[in-house]
Write a structure and sequence with these properties.
Layout: H1 5-22, H2 41-44, H3 54-63, H4 73-90, H5 94-108, H6 116-121, H7 125-138, H8 143-159, H9 170-181, E1 187-191, E2 197-199, H10 206-238
Antiparallel strand pairs: 1-2
Length: about 240
């Protein structure tokens, strides 16, 4: 391959970035998360973050927050049940019908179902998000279920007294994507090089953010118009003996 000035500049840029990521920075800080105190990535020479340690950087990649973890199925259950009940009786409402159509189109237009080896090694984060949608289509997940999950997570975040910090909506969209991703994770239907079924990678990183935004674009109007009614229904269910 012929070396060009552009290639040389890109090589120098990558080398400088690698040097910066692997050289301890004495002016960096220790992780500010309460109870942590580990050296930040930059202070330890194991990354670029000036403030947070590798553990909490990875924690944020998986959960969308440096300190707030993923909601359990039990925590989301009352919100999901209220959302499902509401959608059954209001599915012909304009924004709900539009969201269901958009979610169905999103899955139908996601392209082919990728094998584990392709998802692991060759796809960009947006492509991994589309691959997750393709797996949802293969498993015949109805759009009503995706909408109910989106509403359940959004309702749980709205009523949670403990905020996640960070950029607005990043935690919520990550949690929506994680809950949906669980419907299409697990083992691939193809055999890998070890002659065994291979497992898709766990939900983490930029692919979750892309998947969450794609789902949110389909569901945002339902949240605006109907979330309050769903939360009222959930509260009424909680008050029943």
């Amino acid at each position: 391959m012929k070396t060009t000035p552009a290639n040389e500049r890109e090589g120098r840029r990558k080398a400088a970035l690698l040097h910066r990521a692997t050289t301890p920075d004495a002016e960096a800080y220790r992780c500010p998360i309460p109870g942590c105190g580990r050296p930040s990535q930059a202070l330890a020479g194991r990354g670029l973050s000036l403030y947070h340690c590798s553990f909490h950087i990875q924690f944020k990649n998986r959960h969308g927050s440096f300190w707030k973890g993923t909601y359990s199925a039990a925590e989301l259950r009352p919100y999901r049940r209220a959302a499902e009940r509401y959608l059954k009786t209001h599915r012909d409402e304009f924004w709900i019908a539009a969201a269901l159509t958009a979610l169905r189109s999103l899955m139908e237009g996601a392209g082919p179902v990728e094998r584990v080896s392709d998802v692991l090694h060759f796809l960009t984060p947006p492509e991994k998000a589309r691959a997750a949608l393709a797996r949802l289509r293969r498993r015949a997940i109805p759009p009503e279920r995706l909408l109910a999950i989106h509403l359940a997570v959004t309702g749980a975040v709205a009523e949670d007294p403990i905020g996640p910090g960070g950029p607005p909506n990043e935690y919520r969209l990550t949690q929506v994507a994680k809950a949906v991703h669980r419907l299409a994770s697990g083992y691939d239907g193809f055999y890998g090089p070890r002659s065994a079924h291979e497992r898709y990678p766990r939900s983490s990183g930029l692919a979750l953010r892309h998947l969450g935004r794609m789902l949110d674009e389909c569901c945002e109007h339902v949240v605006r118009e109907h979330l309050d009614a769903i939360l009222t229904l959930k509260a009424a269910d909680a008050g029943k003996p």
